[in-house]
Design a protein that fits this description.
The chain has helices at 2-10, 36-46, 69-75, 90-101, 125-142, 147-172, 188-194, 212-224, 239-248, 263-267, 272-286; strands spanning 29-33, 50-54, 80-83, 105-108, 179-182, 197-200, 229-232, 251-254. By secondary structure, the protein is α/β, with parallel strands linked by helices. It folds into 2 domains: 2-167, Nitrogenase molybdenum iron protein domain (Rossmann fold), CATH 3.40.50; 173-286, Rossmann fold, CATH 3.40.50. It has a 4-stranded parallel sheet, sandwiched between helices. It has a two-stranded parallel ribbon with strand order 5-6. It has a two-stranded parallel sheet with strand order 7-8.
Length: 288
């Protein structure tokens, strides 16, 4: 789909390079982010100095999301495009060079950070802080007149992420069971940071149901690790987690990968930090 849009845009060879100044209102730069954590961090740094948009709609799982032709056209009208990397948006890298040729700044937040094709960097607050710093740098480059404003907001966000990291470390250091079972392998960076073991029902994406052989293996693993809770996610069906929990006599709990917010979460004013704290509460419950 995106190839059609690119051909349409690049076919107009006489079109002028996009002017990286401010938007038509003269007071805000235009920034396009791909999915929720990137949007949330950008909003917290840019605040009212940028018109920040998000590609993936609320309540939609961001893995393998394909932008529409309209959305692709909108990206080409921005001054800054923020994406994570090929592990989450394989199409993003393919248009980055063309955006740059048109004077549209791009930043790949996961460059050099993503390991084993796992995109879930933001679930480690320390890596989230590096993502936020890259957003701050990109905003300051595009809108250098407001660089000090972005710097102050980044420092505020950075401090909150440092405090969240400490809170996680303190809360999880003395848990009695250092293994958890998740619906998909979204929590590898978090597990590495706080030294616990993630056992996933599916792989890096949540769309693949395990085979009968794999299910049997998971039952034995859960029993041998004394698992009392199976985690599921707000945007995915809990049926597989519930079936596994029933097999081993366990209960289910939510562990949110925070890739996208539900309409209910938005309505209640949830954000990255409130959901990370809820995740921690459920982790402590499951691991004790």
């Amino acid at each position: 789909m995106f190839f059609i849009v690119i051909l349409f845009i690049t076919g107009c060879g006489s079109s002028p390079t996009h002017d990286i100044t401010k938007d038509a209102d003269g007071d805000r730069i235009k920034v396009y982010t791909t999915f929720y954590p990137l949007y949330d961090f950008t909003k917290k740094i840019a605040k009212d100095r940028a018109d920040v948009s998000m590609l993936v709609p609320a309540g939609v799982e961001p893995h393998d999301y394909e932008p529409s032709s309209k959305q692709m056209s909108e990206i080409y009208s921005q001054q800054l495009f923020i994406y994570l990397g090929e592990a989450m948006e394989p199409w993003g890298a393919k248009i980055a060079d063309q955006l740059a040729q048109k004077g549209i700044a791009t930043v790949e937040l996961g460059k050099g950070l993503i390991k084993d094709n796992d995109p879930h960097l933001w679930l480690d607050p320390n890596l989230a802080r590096e993502m936020a710093h890259r957003i701050y740098e990109a905003l300051s480059e595009v809108d250098d007149a407001n660089a000090s404003f972005y710097s102050n907001n980044y420092e505020e966000l950075s401090q909150k992420l440092i405090e969240l990291d400490r809170f996680y470390a303190d809360s999880l250091k003395d848990v009695t069971n250092r293994s958890i079972v998740t619906s998909h392998a979204a929590f590898g960076y978090m597990a590495s940071r706080y030294k616990f073991n993630q056992i996933s029902i599916s792989g890096i994406t949540p769309f693949h149901e395990p085979s009968p052989k794999k299910k049997a293996e998971q039952i034995e693993i859960c029993k041998s690790n004394d698992i009392k809770y199976i985690f599921f996610e707000p945007l995915s069906s809990p049926k597989i987690a519930e079936a596994l929990a029933k097999e081993i006599g366990a209960q289910t709990l939510v562990l949110d990968p925070i890739g996208s917010l539900t309409a209910e979460q938005i309505k209640s004013g949830e954000d990255y930090f409130s959901l990370m704290r809820k995740n921690l509460d459920n982790l402590v419950k499951a691991m004790n």
